[in-house]
Design goal:
The radius of gyration is 15 Å and the shape is globular. It starts with a strand and ends in a 14-residue tail after the last helix. The protein contains 4 helices and 5 strands. The chain is of the alpha+beta class and 159 residues long. A 5-stranded mixed sheet has the order 1-2-3-4-5. The longest helix is centred in the N-terminal third of the chain and has 18 residues. 28% of the residues are buried. It has one domain: 3-Layer(aba) Sandwich (Aminopeptidase), CATH 3.40.630.30. α1 crosses α2.
């Protein structure tokens, strides 16, 4: 896939967003089934419904990478207020980024990230935060290349 266009998601993207969101859930569950939710039947519809509910929100954006009528990936970003619980000031937050296997290594993730970062910058976010699964080395390389630095380590204990 070549010639990707980054654009805001629309309601017509619901099925593609759902498929990609389910891919994200499955990948994380595979990383650590105790930490990440199990992809239940219908996860595609549920995730698609959730992401399309964010379209048009003033403090959120969902953008897709499209080529030849196919959505190859998406990014979901939000503006977040100060959080006393998380000891952080207001920021932009990359909630999700996922790219189809067929579109990986084509620059799509970089394009999506840059578009989300610009959206957040234009809305006054002084910084951008994100979380990445510990085993997801490819994503961490991308984020480092884009100037992100490590600041927190999540630790989990099953009870």
């Amino acid at each position: 896939m070549a010639g990707f266009l980054i654009r805001p998601a629309t309601l017509a993207d619901a099925a593609a967003l759902g498929d990609l969101g389910a891919l994200l859930v499955r990948a994380h569950h595979d990383f650590d089934p105790q930490r990440f939710m199990r992809p239940l039947p219908g996860i595609e519809k549920g995730y698609g419904r959730f992401l399309t509910s964010q379209i048009g929100q003033e403090d959120a954006v969902v953008m897709v990478a499209e080529a030849d009528g196919e959505v190859g990936g998406y990014v979901y970003a939000t503006l977040e207020d100060r959080s006393w619980r998380e000891l952080r000031d207001a920021c932009g937050y990359i909630e999700d980024i996922v790219v189809r296997e067929s579109a990986r290594r084509s620059g799509v993730a970089t394009m999506l990230m840059n578009a989300a970062i610009e959206w957040l910058r234009h809305r006054g976010a002084p910084r951008v935060l994100l979380l990445t699964a510990t085993p997801n080395a490819g994503a961490q390389e991308l984020f480092t290349r884009l100037g992100f630095r490590r600041t927190m380590i999540e630790m989990t204990k099953e009870l």
